């Protein structure tokens, strides 16, 4: 009888024991993850000169295999997530095409397809670029996780903060292309010389996605300057001194991005890029001050440590 009651109790309490075990596993996983995150942000890497690092790598090239293996894992995760986002974008490809064709006078009805494979090629292109845009923050996070172990503690924090900032700038460039540039450029292109143009769906989508993507990339310029200034490779003074050259380079970039040859549409691209250049000067100044302050702090810490010893 006792054995029967024990078996009955064991069966009835099984769901509760399983739930308790699951909570214990989740709690242990959370504690381990918290410790790993804490160690990741608090541990300071050894600051070795670049020549010494290169010499050590040449003497023991097997250490590179560890980094290659880590890079492989990050790339595999990126490909998997990008594939999932692409599939989701493929499901909603019709809605995305309708949105991209909104700047046209009659929307998606203004487009035609001539080749047999044109519709599927267009849908795949839109799905891939939409998937990339969706997972852009995750791609930036994976790249940061790869390089973060080799960065100093403060640089890890700034790198993590830079992920949402770069995402905002990238999406801002795409939004500027879609809401400001395309509504201005398309009427000029489709009615140039009084010729009424009926665009092909493949050429139109390629045209729109190229402009949106490259303007999104161009809007990342201030972040790149901030990183270079943090590394001491560029200074705000240098940027100010070479502003004339910068304007010429911006004009060339605007001419490559702008689909039209008229100065109005080119100015629409140059204006934001010049403002971004001015913003880059300010960010470079901030990065320089932070770098000088960090250097002075490290010098004081080293001096105090030598005095103690």
Break the fold down into its secondary structure elements and pairings.
Layout: H1 2-12, H2 14-42, H3 50-59, H4 63-91, H5 93-100, H6 118-134, H7 136-147, H8 153-190, H9 201-218, H10 221-230, H11 236-241, H12 243-257, H13 263-308
The beta-strand count equals 0
> Which stretches are poorly predicted, pLDDT < 50 over at least 5 residues?
none
Order of helices and strands: HHHHHHHHHHHHH
Count of structural domains: 2
How far apart the termini lie comes to 76 Å
Structural class estimated from helices and strands: mainly alpha
Rg for CA atoms: 27 Å
Q: Percent range for helical residues?
A: over 70%
Mean pLDDT: 79
Q: Which percent band covers the strand fraction?
A: under 5%
Total of helices: 13
Q: How is the biggest beta sheet arranged?
A: none
Quaternary status of these chains? single chain
Q: What sort of overall outline do the alpha carbons produce when their principal axes are compared?
A: flat
């Amino acid at each position: 009888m006792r054995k029967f009651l024990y078996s009955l109790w064991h069966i009835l309490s099984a769901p509760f024991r399983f739930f308790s075990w699951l909570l214990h596993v989740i709690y242990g996983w959370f504690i381990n993850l918290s410790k790993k995150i804490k160690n990741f942000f608090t541990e300071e890497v050894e600051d070795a000169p670049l020549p010494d690092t290169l010499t050590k790598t040449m003497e023991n090239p097997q250490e590179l295999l560890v980094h290659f293996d880590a890079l492989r894992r990050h790339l595999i995760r990126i490909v998997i997530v990008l594939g999932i986002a692409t599939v989701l974008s493929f499901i909603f490809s019709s809605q995305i095409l309708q949105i991209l064709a909104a700047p046209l006078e009659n929307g998606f009805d203004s487009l035609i397809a001539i080749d047999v494979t044109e519709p599927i090629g267009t849908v795949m292109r839109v799905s891939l670029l939409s998937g990339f845009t969706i997972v852009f923050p995750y791609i930036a996070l994976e790249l940061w996780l790869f390089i973060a172990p080799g960065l100093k503690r403060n640089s890890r924090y700034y790198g993590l903060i830079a992920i949402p900032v770069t995402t905002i700038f990238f999406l801002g460039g795409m939004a500027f292309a879609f809401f400001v540039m395309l509504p201005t450029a398309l009427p000029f292109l489709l009615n140039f010389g009084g010729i009424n143009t009926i665009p092909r769906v493949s050429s139109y989508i390629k045209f729109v996605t190229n402009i949106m993507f490259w303007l999104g990339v161009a809007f990342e310029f201030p972040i790149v300057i901030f990183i270079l200034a943090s590394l001491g490779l560029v200074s705000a003074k240098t940027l100010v001194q070479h502003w004339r050259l910068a304007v010429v380079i911006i004009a060339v970039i605007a001419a490559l991005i702008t689909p039209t040859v008229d100065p109005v549409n080119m100015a629409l691209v140059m204006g934001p890029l010049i403002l971004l250049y001015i913003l880059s000067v300010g960010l470079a100044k901030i990065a320089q001050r932070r770098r000088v302050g960090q250097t002075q702090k490290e010098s004081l810490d080293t001096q105090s440590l030598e005095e103690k010893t």
